[in-house]
C-alpha cells in the first residue's frame, strides 16, 4: 500500500483528490494539509511514501516543502501538482529533488499512475511544462537577489527586508537594484512580480 500526503490550500480540491485516490486498491491517503508548514508537520508525523504538494500554498510553497522533506523525511518522494505552472518553478522543483511535476488538469487515473511511478523511484514531468522550461532559460538572479525579491513582494519597506535578511539597508538596496536592473524593471515591486511570473521566486 502506497501512503500519501495531500497538501493543497483549496479544501474542495484536496477533498476531491483524497476521495478519488481512495478508490485505488494500492493507494491510501494518510494525511492532508492546507498550508506548507502543516504539510511538513504532517509528513514528519505520518512518514508517507509520497507527498503530493500544491505549488502555491500559504507559508511555505510546494518547492520549499519538498526541500524540507528531502532533509527531514528522506523516505518520502515529493511531487508538485499545480494550476500555476511556470518554467522557473519546474527548475526549482527539480533542483530540490521533486520527482513529479504535473498540472491540475491531469485526471485522477493519471495522478494515481504518476504516484506509483514516483513511489518506485521514477520521475514524471508534464511534457508541455518541460518544453516551457527549456525555452525559458535560467534565472538571471543570484540566490540572494531572489531571496530579497521574495521579501519585497508584499511591499515591505527596505528596513523590514534588511531586518529579516540580517543585512544592512544599504546592502539590501544594492541587491534589489541589481535584481531590478537585470530584469529591466523600474522598481523592486515590479521586479518581484516579474520574477514570480517567470517562476524564479
Strand order of the largest sheet: 2-1-3-4-5-6
Strand content: 5-15%
Computed CA radius of gyration, to the nearest angstrom = 18 Å
End-to-end separation: 35 Å
Instruction: Report the average pLDDT across residues.
Output: 91
Total helical segments: 10
Question: Which term fits the overall shape?
Answer: elongated
Structural class: alpha/beta
Query: Major β-sheet, in short?
Result: 6 strands, parallel
| Poorly predicted ranges | none
Helix content: 40-55%
Number of strands: 6
Order of helices and strands: EHEHEHEHEHEHHHHH
Supply database-style keywords.
201 residues; alpha/beta; six-stranded parallel sheet; 10 helices; elongated; phosphoprotein; Sig_transdc_resp-reg_C-effctor
Give a written overview of the molecule:
Keywords: DNA-binding, Phosphoprotein. This is DNA-binding response regulator. Residues 134-199 form the HTH luxR-type domain. InterPro entries: CheY-like_superfamily (IPR011006), Sig_transdc_resp-reg_C-effctor (IPR016032), Sig_transdc_resp-reg_receiver (IPR001789), Tscrpt_reg_LuxR_C (IPR000792), WalR-like (IPR039420), WH-like_DNA-bd_sf (IPR036388). The protein is of the alpha/beta class and 201 residues long. The chain has ten helices and six strands; from the N terminus they run E-H-E-H-E-H-E-H-E-H-E-H-H-H-H-H. The chain has a six-stranded parallel sheet, with helices on both faces. Helix 4 (87-95) links the parallel strand 4 and strand 5. The longest helix is centred in the last third of the chain and has 15 residues, at 169-183.
Amino acid at each position: 500500500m502506497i501512503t500519501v500526503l495531500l497538501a493543497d490550500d483549496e479544501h474542495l480540491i484536496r477533498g476531491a483528490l483524497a476521495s478519488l485516490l481512495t478508490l485505488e486498491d494500492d493507494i491510501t491517503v494518510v494525511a492532508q494539509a492546507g498550508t506548507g508548514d502543516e504539510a511538513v508537520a504532517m509528513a514528519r508525523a505520518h512518514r508517507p511514501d509520497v507527498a503530493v504538494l500544491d505549488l502555491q500554498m500559504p507559508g511555505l510553497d510546494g518547492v520549499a516543502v519538498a526541500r524540507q522533506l528531502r532533509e527531514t523525511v528522506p523516505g518520502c518522494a515529493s511531487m508538485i501538482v499545480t494550476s500555476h505552472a511556470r518554467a522557473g518553478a519546474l527548475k526549482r522543483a527539480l533542483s530540490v529533488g521533486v520527482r513529479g511535476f504535473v498540472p491540475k488538469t491531469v485526471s485522477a487515473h493519471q495522478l494515481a499512475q504518476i504516484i506509483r511511478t514516483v513511489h518506485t523511484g521514477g520521475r514524471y514531468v508534464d511534457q508541455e511544462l518541460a518544453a516551457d522550461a527549456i525555452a525559458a532559460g535560467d534565472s538571471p538572479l543570484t540566490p540572494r537577489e531572489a531571496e530579497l525579491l521574495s521579501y519585497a513582494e508584499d511591499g515591505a519597506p527596505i528596513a523590514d527586508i534588511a531586518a529579516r535578511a540580517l543585512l544592512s539597508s544599504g546592502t539590501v538596496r544594492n541587491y534589489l537594484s541589481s535584481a531590478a536592473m537585470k530584469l529591466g524593471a523600474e522598481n523592486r515591486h515590479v521586479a518581484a512580480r516579474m520574477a514570480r511570473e517567470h517562476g524564479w521566486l
